[in-house]
Amino acid sequence: MNTLQFAQMTTTSTSTSTLDAETAAMVTVVTVFVTLIGMVLAYVLAGILYGKIFKKAGIPSWIAWVPVYNSWKIFEIGGQHGYWAILSFIPFVNFVAAIFSYISMYNIGLKFGKQGTFVLLAIFFPIVWVIWLAFDKSTWNNAAGAPSKAIEHLAPTQTPPAAPTATPPVAPVL
Which three-class secondary structure string do you get for 40-97? Predict the structure, then answer.
């Protein structure tokens, strides 16, 4: 093998490995970019759909745009404690949180006048469930299903408790 053949082999193998590294880098960048775009689109879609559901339920629609708080409110309007939204981040506890989420979805379906089997749509096709509730003509009936724990649905108190009046300090008698 002469020097020219060795130089051609080295150049060919180097350019091929560089091309492979560049291709891998480009594929990685495109994959990350497409994933981020998909996540942003999913966030916007969820915000719009949850906003419509919250508006029908008498909850301010801006809550749909706050990532964990919107799940908290979904639990609450479904009659469950909102803290399950936080507990759903803990491994193994999230299985229990999922069960409470399904119970919440069941109650939300009842409050929108759906049959009990409507929860199967929420379990197996949650995006269809959310789209259906967002664009359906059904109205919110807070009396159906488990009572909502959302503060917006609680009965207002008659009058706030009066603040205690301060009494001036009394000097000790000697």
Answer: HHHHHHHHHHHHHHHHHHCCCHHHHHCHHHHHHHHHHHCCCCCCHHHHCCCCCHHHHH
- Reported as a single tens digit per residue, the pLDDT across 9-60 is 655 555 555 668 888 889 999 999 999 999 999 999 999 999 999 999 999 9
The token pair that represents 74 in the structure block: 């979904």
Which tokens sit at 94? 């999230």
Q: Which two tokens stand for residue 92?
A: 């193994």
- Note whether residue 140 is domain-resident: yes
Q: Provide the number of structural domains found in the chain.
A: 1
Q: If you search the block for the tokens 């759906």, which residue do you land on?
A: 114
**Does some domain include residue 161?**
no
102 falls within a domain: yes
